[in-house]
């Protein structure tokens, strides 16, 4: 009898209709990992921000996409590709795999997906985030909600979690191929040595200073991709997009990087290496808003490399990690050892409070 292995793929989520934009934003800003305030103040601030932003984003950002996010549909396509690859593999003759998409801030969320995994009769769970780089604001936040839903549902299924894979071979190869396609296009268009901008979603600087390894992992990802590209004297830079609120964020910002490229007379290829599928931050923010800003700056030659999506190398990389972690338990990085420098103590494998949280005993103690 084959073992039934559920592969749960974490992602952020996005509104599926115009009416869902405000509650989606409310869920997002109510996350204590995003806004670190006591509940009463966090609730007031979340309500204010979500009300204000929902009016703008309904008419602008999500309005460009038919008042909804394509994130779920694109995540499902990735899940289908991974499931097929796993079940077609000769290495999995004694196992049956099924993928489940679990969103953090909009449906399907953890309580629903936990029930689906239980009803399918899973013998084992492998959690595979669609975030290559670990952050307390993404992977850990999703893991908190997942474990809470398991505990409240009284469900105990052996679980292995891949907490990060920022330099995974398949992810790096797929990224390099997508960048190379735009690089060659830019050169054919007459732009010599275009600058590659690795644009990741930003974070408040305080979160990184508190020990979150996200920025370090993003920049390590960029370096691995640059090495894979193998282009002599490649001109590249890291930058960060999507700033929200008055706090100081990590930088340089994508706007600053574009302004510098314009000043240097450089064409740019933007690659959103912390996103693995297309959604509002790529299709609207990068493809429309930043492009318009670049044109105003006098920047000629603006290209955007596609996310890894269902690229065969990326899916193969995910499948390889699932297979390696399928007979393990606990929260581990891709290669089972913590990749983060010691100063990043908010790493999932190093931080004592984070490492203990997934255990059911921690939930019992907190109850």
Characterise this structure.
This protein has helices spanning 21-29, 39-59, 71-88, 110-120, 139-152, 169-188, 205-209, 214-229, 254-264, 280-296, 312-325, 352-356, 360-366; strands spanning 3-11, 95-103, 124-127, 159-162, 195-201, 236-241, 268-271, 302-304, 330-332. It folds into 3 domains: 3-14 and 69-166 and 312-366, Rossmann fold, CATH 3.40.50.1400; 18-65, no CATH class; 172-304, Rossmann fold. The protein is built from 13 helices and 9 strands. The protein is of the alpha/beta class and 367 residues long. Strands 2-1-3-4-9 form a 5-stranded parallel β-sheet, sandwiched between helices. It has a 4-stranded parallel β-sheet with strand order 6-5-7-8, sandwiched between helices.
Helix/strand layout:
Blueprint: E1 3-11, H1 21-29, H2 39-59, H3 71-88, E2 95-103, H4 110-120, E3 124-127, H5 139-152, E4 159-162, H6 169-188, E5 195-201, H7 205-209, H8 214-229, E6 236-241, H9 254-264, E7 268-271, H10 280-296, E8 302-304, H11 312-325, E9 330-332, H12 352-356, H13 360-366
Parallel strand pairs: 1-2, 1-3, 3-4, 4-9, 5-6, 5-7, 7-8
Helix pairs in contact: 1-2, 3-11, 6-8, 6-11
């Amino acid at each position: 009898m084959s073992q039934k292995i559920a592969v749960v793929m974490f992602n952020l989520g996005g509104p599926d209709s115009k009416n869902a934009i405000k509650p989606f934003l409310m869920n997002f800003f109510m996350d204590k990992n995003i806004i670190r305030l006591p509940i009463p103040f966090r609730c007031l601030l979340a309500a204010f921000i979500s009300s204000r932003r929902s009016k703008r984003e309904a008419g602008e950002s999500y309005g460009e996409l038919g008042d909804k996010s394509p994130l779920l549909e694109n995540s499902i396509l990735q899940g289908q590709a991974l499931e097929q690859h796993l079940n077609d593999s000769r290495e999995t003759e004694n196992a049956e795999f099924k993928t489940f998409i679990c969103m953090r801030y909009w449906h399907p969320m953890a309580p629903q997906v936990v029930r689906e995994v239980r009803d399918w009769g899973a013998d084992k769970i492998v959690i595979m985030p669609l975030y290559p780089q670990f952050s307390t604001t993404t992977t850990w936040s999703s893991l908190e909600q997942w474990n809470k839903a398991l505990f409240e549902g009284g469900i105990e299924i052996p679980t292995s979690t891949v907490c990060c894979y920022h330099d995974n071979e398949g992810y790096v190869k797929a990224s390099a191929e997508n960048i190379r396609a735009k690089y060659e296009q830019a050169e054919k268009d007459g732009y010599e040595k275009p600058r590659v901008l690795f644009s990741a979603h930003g974070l408040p600087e305080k979160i990184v200073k508190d020990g979150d390894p996200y920025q370090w992992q993003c920049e390590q990802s960029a370096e691995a991709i640059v090495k894979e590209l193998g282009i002599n004297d490649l001109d590249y830079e890291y930058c960060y997009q999507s700033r929200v609120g008055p706090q100081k964020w990590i930088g340089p910002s994508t706007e600053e990087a574009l302004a510098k490229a314009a000043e240097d007379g450089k064409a740019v290829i933007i690659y959103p290496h912390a996103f693995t599928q297309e959604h509002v931050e790529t299709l609207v923010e990068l493809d429309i808003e930043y492009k318009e800003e670049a044109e105003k700056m006098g920047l000629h030659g603006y290209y955007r490399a596609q996310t890894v999506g269902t690229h065969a190398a990326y899916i193969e990389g995910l499948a390889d990690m699932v297979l390696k972690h399928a007979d393990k338990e606990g929260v581990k990085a891709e290669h089972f050892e913590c990749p983060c420098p010691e100063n990043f103590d908010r790493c999932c494998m190093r931080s004592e409070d984070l490492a203990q949280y997934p255990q059911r005993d921690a939930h019992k103690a907190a109850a």
